Amino acid sequence: MAARIIDGKQVAHDIRAELKKETAQLKEQGIVPGLGVILVGEDPASQSYVTAKERACAETGLYSDDNRLPADTTQADLVALIQNMNADPKIHGILVQLPLPKHLNEAEALLTIDPAKDVDGFHPVNVGRMVLGEKAFLPCTPHGVIQLLARSGVTIAGAHAVVVGRSNIVGKPLANMLLQKKENANATVTVCHTGTADIAYHTRQADIVIVAAGRPNTLTADMVKDGATVIDVGVNRVEDASRKSGFRLVGDVDFEAIKDKASLITPVPGGVGPMTIAMLLYNTVESAKRAMA
Q1: Measured distance CA(207)–CA(228) in Å, rounded
Q2: C-alpha atoms less than 13 angstroms from C-alpha of 37 in its C-beta half-sphere
Q3: Where in the chain does DSSP place strands (E)?
Q4: Do residues 249 and 273 make contact, with C-beta atoms less than 8 angstroms apart?
Q5: Catalytic residue positions?
Q6: What would the CATH number be for the domain defined by 31-118?
Q7: What residue ranges do the domains of the chain occupy?
Q8: In which element (H, E) is residue 168 found?
Q9: Pick the CATH number of 140-275 from 3.40.50.300, 3.30.460.80, 3.40.50.720, 3.40.30.10
């Protein structure tokens, strides 16, 4: 039987609708959730992503302070702008779009962000709080994966979840979030990576497989047990002469082969991707609510 497709676009739409109502209620109390965005340079993918965030803010009712800086912006100017946003009460969340131009120090820029406004969840203070199970801004893509699972009726507690990939942005935080003794968590977690001798041995035992490896066809049909839930975080460009652009987007999962074996599966595009922006807005609204406390 073919797998049920998890529609990330629809789930993200539902979350934005919920946030729109919350934002309207906050506005009645004199608070407008504000997101400060910094984009340095003219990377096309980053520009497209920031534009999508601006559109999502407008749709949800958030205030968006967009700063598009030239590629030759100095470290001092970047840090000064972040510090100004830290001090601005209209800004509840700060996003520095990565990657930055090579002459800029990403680590220093991220450390400059006030942890109370770190809506990307990358600051070491928020990472530490997350690991300890304390209240923290959760990284947007991993949090989006958790929401996709929960809102699709997948039981996480007691399940064996295998995460393929160990990046600081997705793999590590997601594994940590899944094993927490909390709602929508409490799984038994295995992490596979380039040093794992036999990845298929582990993925074949998984109830939930989440792939964030950055390589097409990392997960093939013979690596998945019947009825597993498969979440594909990857986004890869592959050549396709039939497309006007000359390429198409695929994930890390062999979707066509696995969709007839899994019980649930996310597509690429339209799966995890839309959730990242939705959870960024979620964190910004949460920050605004905390500022009122």
Answers
A1: 5
A2: 25
A3: 4-5, 34-40, 63-69, 93-96, 160-164, 188-192, 208-211, 229-232, 236-239, 247-250, 264-265
A4: no
A5: 53, 97, 120
A6: 3.40.50.10860
A7: 31-118, 140-275
A8: none
A9: 3.40.50.720
| Residue 30 identity (one-letter amino acid) | G
Q: In the beta sheet, which residues pair with residue 247? A: 239
Contact predicate 218/211, CB 8 Å:
yes
How far is 163 from 206, CA to CA, in rounded Å? 9
Question: DSSP string of 227-257?
Answer: T-EEEE---EEEE-TTSTTSEEEE-SB-HHH
Distance of alpha carbon 107 from the chain centroid = 19
Q: What is the pLDDT of residue 240?
A: 74
Cα–Cα dist 23/104, whole Å: 35
- pLDDT, residue 49, reads 86
Q: DSSP state, 20?
A: H
pLDDT 10s digits, 258-291: 999 999 999 999 999 999 999 999 999 999 999 8
Q: Residue 229's closest CA among 1, 70, 5? A: 5
Q: Token match 């794992």: residue?
A: 196
Does position 1 have pLDDT exceeding 90, yes or no?
no
Half-sphere exposure of 216 (CA within 13 A, CB side): 9
SS3 of 24, please? helix
Residue in the structure block whose two tokens are 């629809």:
10
